[in-house]
Specification:
It is globular and about 45 Å long. It has 2 helices and 6 strands, in the order αββββββα. By secondary structure, the chain is of the alpha+beta class.
């Protein structure tokens, strides 16, 4: 898909995000495959002005936990919205707390 978008000249104006719901641990506690990992996971972005080949952050040597340049889901979402030309602060809905805007 990314190659097709690039070939058609659409990759510069299209953002492609690939990720799963969780990372995967390098081990399994049972026989059903690897366990979910909420402490470190990978995703990739292509197009839309994102720098090609850039790697941000790292996990420990075991692949269990993020150890450097950790990005929260909130910050990732804000970055994507900014790339789309939207101000994430204007889309914030405050609940159960006073507004801090």
């Amino acid at each position: 898909m990314v190659r097709d978008l690039k070939q058609r000249g659409l990759l510069d104006e299209t953002i492609v995000l690939w990720t799963g719901e969780f990372g995967r641990l390098p081990v399994s506690q049972g026989t059903d495959g690897r366990d979910h990992n909420r402490h470190g996971f990978s995703l990739w972005l292509a197009g839309g002005g994102f720098r090609r080949g850039y790697v941000h952050g790292a996990t420990d040597d075991f692949g269990y936990a993020a150890v450097s340049d950790i990005v929260s889901v909130h910050d990732l979402q804000a970055t994507l919205l900014q790339a789309l030309g939207l101000d994430h602060r204007k889309l914030t809905y405050y609940f159960e707390a006073a507004s801090t805007a």
